[in-house]
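Let us work through a complete example step by step.
Step 1: write down the sequence.
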Amino acid sequence: MSGAEQIASSALTTIPVITAATTMRARPITSGSGGVAEEVAGEADVTIDPKSLDEHHRGTMAELLGIRFVEATRDRVVAELTVRDDLRTFGGRLHGGSLMALADTVGATATFLNLPAGASTATLESKTNFFAGGQEGVVRAESIPLHRGRSTMVWQTRVTDASGRLLSLTIQTQMVLKQ
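Step 2: predict the structure and record it as tokens.
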């Protein structure tokens, strides 16, 4: 059975898949896949294996940039990006577009983890303020919800450097697209 057939034949757990530039859609995955999502007993929160998010972003811009997920729940998603020369401006700082792509990826993934079954999401609006330039090492993006509604969700993503210095702050609105 192919990977696509395995995914199509399962029912219980969902994981993210990029279906277009900034659109994510939930799809089922087999329950024997190593526990991608695990419901915590007595709690509504779902803990997601960050490596499974990396896997499902394979072949997308997230992989091209080198975004790595390190924590993921329905209330908080954290990812990291290593500053490389090809992500810098001529001035040697991490390019603002790299920061925005990191924030958009993390916010969209956070939205996905909160979607109803069968729904997808797309970025409707994104506003980024830049405070400092990342120069080296690893930057960290942390996304938390400001609003989780039936038709839209709003996420705030803080991007910081290894010392905790705020590099950028993004607030984005994600549409909830129902089938």
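Step 3: interpret the result. The CA atoms of residues 36 and 49 lie 5 Å apart.
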